[in-house]
Design goal:
The chain is α+β, with helices and mostly antiparallel strands and about 575 residues long. It has 3 domains: about 1-165, BirA Bifunctional Protein, domain 2, CATH 3.30.930; about 180-260, no CATH class; about 300-535, no CATH class. Helix content is about 50%, strand content about 10%. It has 20 helices and 8 strands. It has a 5-stranded antiparallel β-sheet, sandwiched between helices. Strands 6-7-8 form a 3-stranded antiparallel β-sheet. Helix 6 (about 195-210) crosses helix 7. The longest helix has about 35 residues, at about 420-455.
Length: about 575
């Protein structure tokens, strides 16, 4: 159940006309009262003798009864209460009870208080009601509405439990504005899967990924085909912007523009500027020396993304809150950049992951911008590297990047859960679910290659790897040997030695880097950690010296999807 306190108004009749209007709003069907301060309140929707003016005059009576100097400038209070998409259709009686609970919880009409404000609840669609109230009590005093939005959210959780509705997480005011009913109906009428607001939000969000100045930002928006209006001060300084879809028009045929701040709190021009205001040129993390052949290629950018994501995990786990918040926000940019440039077989899941994570990227913890410049740089590298398909990227380096981002988003989920950010933690969990699916699509081919190579190792070499495993990880060895991924790990250990490293030392280090108790396949986790640490190639196209019988494609980790916030399962 989603309650929303709207901006206060000055005209009771204006809001009533909107609530009872049917000719211009497709979702306004059979508007009628389901509850009110007085059981005899007139209902212009069901009673042909009742008028909007009669209901307005009764609602405004306490306001008119006090001296004009004591009247609130904006005396009209408005709360909408919407059921979740999967909730059953409630009856008028149930919606009436919900309305009474909401006005009591918010302070409009406290229970057992005969002197509360006058109010009315109008239902004009199956899935929601609107509550209108006037902000002078029957005794002439003003109501106490401190934290009315938070109190409506708390009451919604209790209502969900009583009626067996979907249990939602209480918001903290940092979420993007939901599309209105009119916007949703307009989208359906136009045959769109999403509303114009949602399409614009994603397009602007992806345009921000890794940008370093306003010119680049607006060039990206123009390249996506958006209409742009800029707001300037008399001095000529740029103050803000609006965007519109070319084919989204109002009844007069004019484009419908949305300011950046109305798309999401962090998409206003001042908040976007914060992203690059503290930036300075930075060297992106090395992809273990494997990007020297084509530093601007999609595969090189993905290797650097994996390295940066791994380093970011440690910051999110142990950094200060302001720095962690910056890294989490920049992670959203990396996801958007990866989705924008990925091949078709991973693109949809990556876009879904980025969209879900958008909610996790904001909280009331103010980000210390500038500390996140490395992640923003790899987002920029991904965009500048261009589309992956057909440009030397066969899925292996995408799988590597996704795999490390999975670690990072899992850490983000746990950080939000620890801070009590329920919506953000759940959004990170959803993003991880989509990343899991994207990883499987990206890794299918390279995984098969590595497994085949591991199974073709000669018997003496495989025996030596078994001994090495038992000596290095005696407490985990038998479990690893029983896993299907053991052959991939054996092949990777051979590759590590062929590359001039000490397999035992790297194996021990890989096992100690992060807990393994919740990993679904320990061998898979170790394969990825070893290949990244040792700088082993991601795919068969990398030009490195290999000994016969060694592996050449990665086997990134296969891990459980993280549990819900608060659980002990942390993935890899």
């Amino acid at each position: 159940m989603i309650p929303r306190v709207h901006q206060r108004g000055a005209r009771t009749i204006g809001l009533l006309k909107y609530l009872y209007e049917t000719s211009t709003h497709e979702d306004h069907v059979d508007p009628h009262l389901v509850a009110a301060w007085d059981t005899f309140a007139p209902d212009p929707g069901r009673d042909p003798q009742a008028t909007l003016e009669q209901l307005q005059q009764l609602l405004d009576q306490p306001v008119q009864a006090v001296a004009e100097a004591r009247r609130p400038d904006k005396h009209v209070w408005h709360l909408s209460v919407r059921a979740a998409p999967d909730d059953p259709v409630l009856s008028d009686e149930q919606w009436g009870e919900i309305a009474r609970r909401m006005v009591a919880a918010t302070g409009i009409a406290p229970a057992s208080d005969d002197s509360g404000c006058r109010w009315a609840a109008v239902r004009h669609a199956d899935d929601h009601i609107h509550i209108i109230a006037t902000l002078v009590r029957e005794d002439g005093r003003k109501p106490r509405l401190n934290n009315d939005a938070k109190r409506s959210q708390a009451e919604a959780r209790l209502i969900e439990a009583k009626y067996g509705l979907k249990q939602l997480n209480t918001g903290d005011g940092t979420a993007a504005q939901h599309p209105t009913s009119a916007e949703r109906h307009k989208a359906r009428r136009q045959g769109r899967e999403r509303t114009a607001r949602e399409e614009l939000r994603e397009t602007v969000r992806r345009a921000v990924a890794g940008v370093t100045n306003e010119e680049e930002f607006f060039n990206r928006l123009a390249a996506e085909g958006l209409l742009i209006r800029k707001r300037r001060a008399p001095s000529g300084d740029l103050l803000g912007y609006k965007v519109a879809l070319p084919d989204d028009r109002n009844k007069d045929g004019e484009p419908v523009f949305y300011p950046g701040a109305r798309l999401a709190p962090d998409l206003s021009l001042p908040r976007i500027r914060e992203r690059w205001s503290a930036d300075h040129p930075v060297q992106a993390p090395s992809a273990d020396g494997l990007d020297r052949e084509a530093p601007g290629s999609p595969s090189a950018a993905r290797r650097r993304t994996a390295s940066a994501a791994w380093a970011a995990v440690l910051i999110v786990d142990h950094g200060e809150d302001a720095v962690t918040a910056a890294y989490i926000a920049a992670t959203g940019e990396v996801l958007d950049a990866l989705a924008k440039t990925s091949a078709a077989h991973t693109r949809q899941e990556l876009r879904s992951a980025a969209s879900a994570f958008e909610r996790a990227s904001r909280s009331h913890v103010r980000a210390e911008r500038g500390t996140d410049r490395v992640l923003r740089q790899v987002a920029r590298d991904l965009v500048n590297g261009g589309p992956a398909l057909g440009r030397g990227e066969d899925g292996a380096t995408t799988a590597m990047a996704i795999d490390m981002l999975f670690f990072l988003i899992t850490a983000t989920m746990l950080w939000h859960a620890k801070k009590g950010h329920a919506q953000q933690a759940d959004a990170a969990r959803q993003a991880a679910e989509h990343l899991r699916s994207a990883y499987q699509a990206a890794a299918a081919q390279p995984i098969g290659v590595l497994n085949r190579r591991g199974k073709n190792l000669n018997r003496p070499l495989l025996q030596r790897q078994t001994v090495l495993l038992r000596q290095s990880l005696p407490e985990l060895a038998e479990q690893i040997l029983a896993e299907p991924g053991w052959h991939a790990l054996a092949a990777t250990l051979a590759d590590v030695k062929a590359a001039g490293h000490d397999p035992a030392a790297l194996l021990t280090d890989a096992a100690e880097r992060r807990e393994l108790g919740t990993a679904e396949s320990i061998s898979d986790v170790l394969v990825w950690r070893l290949r990244r640490t040792a700088g082993l190639p991601a795919d068969s196209g990398d030009k490195v010296n290999r000994r016969p019988g060694t592996a050449q494609s990665p086997r990134p980790v296969g891990q459980r999807t993280p549990g819900r916030p608060g659980s002990q399962r942390t993935g890899p």
